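Q: Start with the shorter request: fold the first protein.
A: Done. Sequence, then structure:
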Amino acid sequence: MTEEKETKKKIEIIENSLGRKFPSYIEGYGEVIPFQGAWSNLYLKKKPTTLSLGSEIRPQDKMCSTLEEALKKCKVFNGMTVSFHHHLREGDGIVNLTMKALKEMGVKGIKLAPSALFNVHSGLVDYLNDGTIETVLGSMNGSIGVQVSLGKMQGVGVLRSHGGRVRSIVQDDMHIDLAVIGAPTADNYGNANGIDGKSACGPLAYSNIDSKLADKVIIVTDNLVPYPASPISISQVNVDYVVEVESIGDPNKIVSGTLRIVRKEPLITISNNTAAVVEHSGLMKEGFNFQAGAGSISLLTVERIGEMMKKTGVKAGWVNGGTTSLIVDLFRQDYVKKLTTCQAFDLVSVESLRNDKNHLEINIDEYANICNKGCLVNLLDIVVLGATEVDVDFNVNVNTHSDGYLKHGIGGHQDTAAGAKLTIITVPLARRDNPIIIDSVTTVTTPGECIDVVVTEDGIAVNPLRPKLEKMLKEAGLPVMDIHELKELAEKKAGKGYVKPETKERIVAVIEWRDGSVIDVVREVVPKEKK
């Protein structure tokens, strides 16, 4: 009997600690380690991989006239894993440029390992169909996620948190053959940063680990400067080749629809309730720190927190981001002493990182890797996060919608929720005719044990594991109620209960917890019109 047949013979259906069931071995993914709790595998560490050393090229020969030349020198091959960063978000031009070149070179079966994909990458759907891309090992936002949900990808996708991605690279769960790094500024020896140049996007935090551990590294820049480029986000010691192109992307499209404040109900009420939870949590005191997401509710909440800080005189020690102009304004008014940034969400934040003292760039290893000796998320006092769904056990879904389609990545959701002293989830009770508080989420992204409070427009639910916090919020007069009551209100607003999407048995994507265990899977969706 062959080894493959032996493996298939041993496959069984296993269940993780949240009751989610899947095969013990998933073809295209491998052996499954079932999730057993948010902190259960904290010390279950494999030996880290080492830095990628050595090169056959002479030190002075890093410049290539075209991207194609650099790719050829990297000896690209079928089935290779190629990584990218997403700091330019909807303005990114490097992923499409590189994949077009690889396709023209006839490379097949690529394992695409971006830190995230966006709608600007929708053209990659064609590469899923023709076999250029075998699988996506990273966040799939928008149209790519929809196509994967419909079974249009040959392989099995893997979604990891920002910190989980770093962990997977460090522990060689995801070995990167080639990292292509779009750099707004670089010199001819490979030193690069993201704060200068016409395409300045802020940090290059996502590609920091890729540059260190990928077998080959190409820097692509549209602002080649005399040696040495400074400051240095990506170091020359990790770079094989440098290519100058006309444009790496459009920084004006860093700000996408999810990064704009929408001042309407129920968002305003939810943000007011959230700010009240922060105020009465006992954590908002001199030197506190926090992180908020980039959705409208989070942005409105930051605005309200800023107003409270100005009213009370309480100042934050530091704030982490995904940094926005709202946070920069508080920083420049001295209500925040220091900013740490691993992603700039607007051009004001890019400019601040370039010019303001005490605004620091941190990489994703420093931010959220569970397997290093101390990441920033462990020090967070408060984090405000969103969700597509929340269930009565406080489990949170951010990856799929209620229709089962995969439309979002994990980002730092798992990492910050597990690390912060106070994790707040903000959601409206219903979106269109879908209740958002339900019995059991379509897909588990972050386990309920990491969630402290769920805030909606009509009420606030506190995790029963946090009785002291619940008492404090009730005594402050906040509208605290049981999560089951919120579920009933959600169904009334939606006009119906949760309808489970129809799916096939085929697993199209695996959702990993930040330690590498499998917290859930996404199965191929049966389109409603084709039932």
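Q: Next, the second protein, separately.
A: Sequence, then structure:
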Amino acid sequence: MCHTMTRISSLLWLCHVCVFNISVAKVCTLQNSFHPGFMAEGDFVIGGIFPLHYNQEMPDLNCTYKPPPVKCNGFDPRAFRWAQTMRLAVEEINHSSELLTNYTLGYKILDSCAYPLTGQRAALAVLNGMSEDDSPMCSNASPLLAVIGESGSAQSIVVSRILQPFRIPMISYFSSCACFSDRKKYPTFFRVIPNDDYQVKAIAQLLVRFNWTWVGLVRGDHEYGRFAVQGLLKELQGTKVCVAYQEMIPLLYNRRRGLEIMEVMRSSSAKVVVVFSAEGEMTPFLKDYMTQNITGIQWVASEAWVTASVFSGSEYYPHLGGTIGFGIKKGYITRLGDYLQTVNPAMYPDNPLVQELWEALYGCNAIPSSPSRLPLCSGHELQLPQHSAYMNISSPRVAYNVYKAVYAIAHSLHNLLLCQPGSGPFENNSCAQNNNIYPWQLQYYIQEVTFNIAGEEVNFDLKGDSVPYYDVINWQRGTAGNIEFVTVGLYDGTKPTGEELMIQEDRIMWARHQSEVPVSVCGASCPPGSRKAVRRGEPVCCFDCVPCDSGKVSNQTNSIECTFCPDEFWSNKDRTACISKEVEFLAYDSLGITLTVISVVGASLTIAVCGIFFYHRNTAIVRVNNSELSFFILFALVLCFLCSLVFIGEPTAWSCMLRHTIFSITFSLCISCILGKTLVVLAAFTATRPGDNVMKWLGPRQQRAIIFSCTLMQVIICAAWLIGAPPQPFRNTQYEHSKIIIECSVGSTLAFWCVLGYIGLQACLCFVLAFLARNLPGNFNEAKFITFSMLIFCAVWLAFIPAYISSPGKYANAVESFAILASSFGLLFCLFASKCYIILLKPEKNTKQHLMGKEKK
């Protein structure tokens, strides 16, 4: 388009240069003519530019001959109705007894063909006044005070720039581009349609409201589409909505390019398409779209085409039904219906636009002399369904904007004429001259005007914008199968942020005649229990669903992240809720019961051995092996077996203190007894001379003193431990995050290892002494059995340390209980199994001579 306009502009400039060089003295002459659509004289003239056609046929520009004018195709009855609304408003004002009394308004209405280049020609033509051959504008005030127009933003940009040097105000009825709010670039521009900044905010809120996170954008090749898309992308920043693609419909529609856009729509997973385009390029685009069998598209229409009557035909519904968008607020014009009926070929036989209207409405030729190929009208034709909305004036929108724009100029001009000399707004408090009004003087009053029409207040802010109101329009099937534009909500830009959009969702009919909101997402919704993980190199709306890690939950759909459960809780199987953690300790379950049974069996066996020894206390084997120490050892072993029971069950403050203290004291007692016995054996068999009195130092009293003193040392250590930093129950949530392990903290690590170290020291000392006495004479050398018992004891507890450290949860207590039981069984069997064997099964060996190895062979 830019290349074409450049070539045409170059040709116009060359023509201008040629005419200028022929004779500077000659008066400028028109090189071409641009006939107005409608014209009426008056005291004050306003211009009107409307897209009475929506397509163009560009001439051949080869610079070898004068190019013909651009041919406009595709008559638009909707825009024709806008033009007639302007005429109606002017006639009402001219007959009004309250506005411009004793003055009349004139107008000059031209066709822009919905194209910037043709709009430029229309603007230049409207500047020439009522007659193009007579242009007094260089010597007096402009014959044109203001312009109503244009519809498309691209055309309005061109027209506004042409009018700016002459400071002629322009009020647009349909140009919503946000770019016009720049007063430095467009100082004379006003509009009665809301700024597109509000429309893009409304569309962004609509997309967020219905959770359409993956959408396509299609725009026209003009400023309106470009600025609207830029504004929408800005609004969508910080939301969950992403754009799948952006496509542009050529201003001069090209079918090949249109099919490429449709292929992108077909292949994309985005089922919602937002379109910022004018009716002109959308009409051929949608005609091609209907032939491509593309289904499932939910259209979101901009105000430029959401109420276009050309799309109300029944053939559009299967493809466009359910379209939703924001339309200009509707109004009501009392006499519009009657006035439109007066526009016919009989009333305007020489107006080609009226002839085209008749052909569009009825598909026939009303004027016999016309070169049209259509059949002559018989007078009995019915309106074609695609243009039946032409006479539907129940809810005019754009036409109502035209109506307001004309009245805005009339009220402004009326206020200008009421100005009293000496109290005016201009230099030295002057007023404008009634017979020589300049457009810039009228612009001042347009900026300040405020009036009511049909209960609505009309005014302009400092940027030339009006109050932002939109109706939410939904395309639904009518009774005749056509499309009806049903209002299902409202957008009020004057309300606080977040409260502007009001929609009656139950009244909406979506694409494909569905009552459920369409889904348009790049990735399927992530259910509770998972989170969204963005795919590398793709927009944030394209994601995979990743299950939450253990200990994390998400209880909402499409959670961005999973949240940690509190310390006392853990995630359930589905990762949707936090549940109380499983509490773990060595309970009376299968493992606890097994250890309990083993403990009781061990204690019972020890008591049984004790009973055997007591029953046979007078036999040689019991007496030789120091029966008192044996009973002490058996008593201590019973306590050792039973102390393992303290490790089973839920830890409490008392059980934690008893566990290690009872265990350490009982084992210390047991080892002290074995140590005493070892000393006695060693002393008895190492006496070198007869009558040597070594045993007098190891009598029963001394033996008890050794046991008591060795055990007392352990008691003192335990007492200091309990007083200083006693063991306490501890809820361990770090070792295994899914469980709460209730265990006993040792309190003082130093005391804990001192207790174990003391037992180890006793065992090592006992082992060394017994090892030294292992080869002493006698058939029953007690030192050998003590050596083996200590060897087993040390082996068990050396293996216990790494096993205890590496065991999780309740198994740590189980390992400690197992070590207690294993070492207790080791002592019991090593020290007493052989004795019980002799007592019960070999009584003949239970003699002093046999034990001392002195029996006769």
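Q: Describe the second briefly.
A: Residues 653-685 form the longest helix (33 residues). The mean pLDDT is 83.
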